Amino acid sequence: MTPELQDEGLIRDALRIVEEARRRGVVLRLMGALAIRVHTPEFSELYRRLSRLGGGGSQFTDVDMVTYRSQREAAHRVFTSLGYRPDRLVMAYFGESRFLYHHPQGLYQIDLFFERLRFSHDLDLGPGPGEGRLELDYPTLTPADLLLEKLQIHEIDEKDIKDLVVLLRGHRLSEGEEGDSISLGRVASVLSRDWGFWYDAKANLRKVLEFSRRYREEGLLGEEDLEDVTSKVEEILRYVDETPKTREWLRRARVGTRKRWWREVEELIR
Amino acid sequence: MPMSGRKTFARRTSGLVREASLLDTFAYNSSASSFVAILWFYTWVVTFAPGGNILSAIPLSLISFSIAITYAMLVATFPRSGGDYVFNSRVLHPSLGFAFNFSLVFWQSFFLAFTYYLIWLSGIGPGLHILGYLLHNTTLVNLGLTLMSPWASFLLGTLLNVFFTLLALSGTKKMLWANNVIWVLSMLGIAVSIGAMAVVGHQGFIDLFNSFMASYGGPYGSAPNPYQAVIDGARAAGYTVPPFVFSWPYVALSTSAVMWTFYSAYIAGEVKRADSVRRNLVSMAGAGVFNVVLMALFFHYLFKTFGYEFIASLSYLCSYSPEGLPWVYATEMITAFCGLVARSPLAAALSVLGISLAGTLIFVVVLYLQISRNLFAWSMDRLLPERMADVHPRFHTPIYVNLTVFVVAEVFLLALMAFPDAFWTIYGSTIIGPAFSCMFLPGITAALLPYRRRDIYEVSPIKREVAGIPIITISGVVQSAYMLFMVYEYVSWPQFGISAPLPLFLNFGMILVGFLLYWIIRAVRRRQGIDIDLAFAEIPPV
Q1: How far apart are CA B137 and CA B436, in angstroms?
Q2: Torsion-angle region of residue A99: left (phi > 0), alpha (psi -120 to 50) or beta?
Q3: Contact present, A191 and A197 (Cβ < 8 Å)
Q4: Given B7, B17, B391, which is nearest A118 (Cβ)?
Q5: To the nearest whole angstrom, how far is the Cα of A165 from the nearest Cα of chain B?
Q6: Which of B236, B240, B304, B307 has the most Cβ atoms closer than 10 angstroms to its Cβ?
């Protein structure tokens, strides 16, 4: 099976799970790189050209999903009924923040998170079914939340930057939550409350600019791609800068980088 | 994960935030080795040891830092939850890993129940008694006396068992939070006690004690000087206070303030950067330093304020001739005196609460998590029914494991209530058993790791040598040798009650039971078509 077919197979499986969950009344959404791929089908060729994992192999190895904590039991039943095996070690030790499921033949694994994402920084996706952000889009998170999920990474690596390039290239910007656009209001709202998140997000956006210019030189991005991504990054930076900051943000800004501003994130297996 | 030591796991799981920070594990490890339990033990050991100066024993007990150092290195190499069970079973042999861990789990289950029981008997009970006296409140006095009874301790102990089981079901984060709260309150209480002892001074304590006993009444209370009457009473009962000099049993005893500070090893998979030797040393050896300093300060003021001769005499009377005294067990008097010297009701409450917690509940979270992580690990390795490792999605914890911990603790609580004297004897004579279970063999494992598992050693963060000998080998040898010394001390002093056949079996026989159990389970699994050797060919991923 070619890498492209493997990727398509993974996407198909992921969408099947989300659809089955929807059928059972469970709000389940894709996030991460696979979600970006699903949300930017017209730029799948760009994704392939950028080759996020390098080499000629599959570009996606695992799946990240999110549901509401109150629905975690129901979501668990969705996965197990479809033959996915829960990882008991991960559930026992880290079940507060995630569950992990293995494909029946061990081809890939699925991380299931809950609405309050805790990584280098926090991203809150809402209180619960009917009131949260998971219902704003389907079958993935909204583009703004997909962007924030990547921007919160403190030690961002190149594959995440490539994900951001494709996400930005594939969506226009808007103030509010409008169809297939990245909501500047949502992005600025989150970053104007959390100084540490803001600091890392800005640094990551600047890295996107830097790497985009390099990709242009390497011929991975066209001139139009570079201009588009650059203008969007600059617009996001400007919008965020102009958004008034909360008192908590200002208080934290006074301390700045003298105190650690991100949460340590490790790999599951050390 | 294969045993090559290299990360062959190609797929990465999205970033993981581990719950236990450096501060959490520092408090966790300090809790595991709280010196207040030694304080209580001191009141018993002083009745037979030839010298009572525990402070002079501290320097030698510092050799036990080798345990924390060795564990720091082992955990950095195997940053997995399960502690000694993981290292020993994967480096030496599964039968040895299970045998020693089985013994530890058995005895720590007993101690878990004991802490639920003891807090009322030796902590809150005498504490309320003193508070009642300070506030002239007979209700509190009577409540305190009531709590110092087996049935009350059982009932309230059961409530604690329910509470901590429910807490465990809600996840590690809440357990760590609870441990931090208990630790802070304990340290606050200890600090208040030390401060109060320092301020009150010797004569001040004599005056307070005499007033207290006068209000209590009885033969000592009606004496012109109850403080002196206690000393005279012990002499009349045939007790000779040992000279205030060095004594070998106290080396073993004071070691207990240090030797358990590796307990975060049992939750290492959930500890931030547990693969860092430096961080492990800070949280393990650092906690040991903290505990030793605190213990030294406390005992210094204990002797200075209460008086060594008085403490020893009162301990003897409580154990052998308690008529006329408010305390059934000598352990109760320390809590009471810490409340007494605090004088103000608020300071007394803080002091009494802190000392009570520091001698009992401070161990609960660390014991609970160690027992549950080991039971879970056994089940994952198919040594227990697989069902035990089932994780309920609502609680996201292994529910059957937690229920097992609850039930076993409850059975021990019942037994404590029904046979309190027998279990005090068992408790006293099983001091060394659990320690030996989790400290002797890991020393051997550490010493042999560079030779038996060269592949793991080569890529580990502990690859350092002195004169061509791996540091972990040196540290492991010192650790195991020190444990043999500890065993010798406890076995060679008849008063510890270990040298008879039954206590010897209780201390070390559970290892044999575990060893036999392993081979039986292995054979049973084989007949079921399950080869458990396969599980031990791999290191658990977390």
Answers
A1: 46
A2: beta
A3: yes
A4: B17
A5: 20
A6: B307
SS3 of B136-187: CCHHHHHHHHHHCCHHHHHHHHHHHHHHHHHHHHCCHHHHHHHHHHHHHHHH
Task: Kindly state the tokens that stand for B232.
Answer: 């005279």
Chain B contact for A109 (CB, 8 A cutoff): yes
**Contact between B105 and B375 (Cβ < 8 Å):** yes
Say whether residue B397 is in contact with chain A using an 8 A CB cutoff: yes
Per the CB < 8 Å rule, is B13 touching A61? no
Contact between A109 and B13 using a beta-carbon 8 Å cutoff: yes
Domain boundaries, chain B: 22-536
Chain A residue nearest residue B172, CA to CA: A93
Determine if residue B382 is left, alpha or beta; phi over 0 gives left, psi from -120 to 50 gives alpha, anything else beta.
left
The answer to whether A93 faces chain B, any CB pair under 8 Å, is yes
Rounded to whole angstroms, how far apart are CA atoms B208 and B337? 9
Q: Are strands A116-118 and A85-86 parallel, antiparallel or unpaired?
A: unpaired
- Residues A154, B260: Cα–Cα separation, whole Å: 36
**Residue from B313, B39, B333 nearest B213 by CA:** B333
Q: Which residues on B lie below 8 Å from A264 (Cβ)?
A: 17-18, 272-273
Q: In B, which residues are within 8 Å of A53 by CB distance?
A: none
Q: Is B65 part of the contact surface with chain A (CB cutoff 8 Å)?
A: no
Domain range B22-536, its CATH number among 1.20.1740.10, 3.90.1300.10, 3.40.1710.10, 1.10.275.10: 1.20.1740.10
Q: Is the minimum CB–CB distance between B15 and chain A shorter than 8 Å?
A: yes
A94 touches chain B (CB under 8 A): yes
B451 φ/ψ angles, rounded to the nearest 5 degrees: -105, -40
Spatial CA neighbour of B264 closest among B72, B5, B61, B38: B72
| Alpha-carbon span B11 to A268, nearest angstrom | 10
Ranges of each domain in chain A: 3-258
Q: Which of B368, B379, B363, B378 is nearest to B402 (CA)?
A: B368
CB pairs under 8 A between A and B: 106
pTM value?
0.93
Q: Show residues of chain B in contact with A263, CB under 8 Å.
A: 17
Query: Are A88 and B79 an interchain contact pair (Cβ–Cβ within 8 Å)?
Result: no
> Pairing between strand A122-124 and A116-118?
antiparallel
Q: Minimal Cα–Cα distance from B270 to chain A, Å?
A: 7
Nearest to B291, CA basis, from B186, B442, B404: B186
Q: What residues in B contact A92, CB-CB < 8 Å?
A: 376, 389, 391, 396-398
d(CA B456, CA B6): 8
Residue-by-residue pLDDT tens, chain A, 270 positions? 777 778 999 999 999 999 999 999 999 999 999 999 999 999 999 999 999 888 777 889 899 999 999 999 999 999 999 999 999 999 999 999 999 999 999 999 999 999 999 999 999 999 999 999 999 999 999 999 999 999 999 999 999 999 999 999 999 999 999 878 999 999 999 999 999 999 999 999 999 999 999 999 999 999 999 999 999 999 999 999 999 999 999 999 999 999 999 999 998 888
Interface test with B, best of A94, A113, A120, A160 (most B CBs within 10 A): A94
Distance separating alpha carbons of residues B182 and B464, to the nearest angstrom: 38
For residue B13, what is the nearest residue in chain A, using CA coordinates? A268
Rg (CA), chain B: 24
Question: Which of A89, A92, A266 is nearest residue B16 as measured by Cβ atoms?
Answer: A266
Helix or strand holding residue B263 (H, E): none
Q: Do B273 and A264 touch (CB under 8 A)?
A: yes
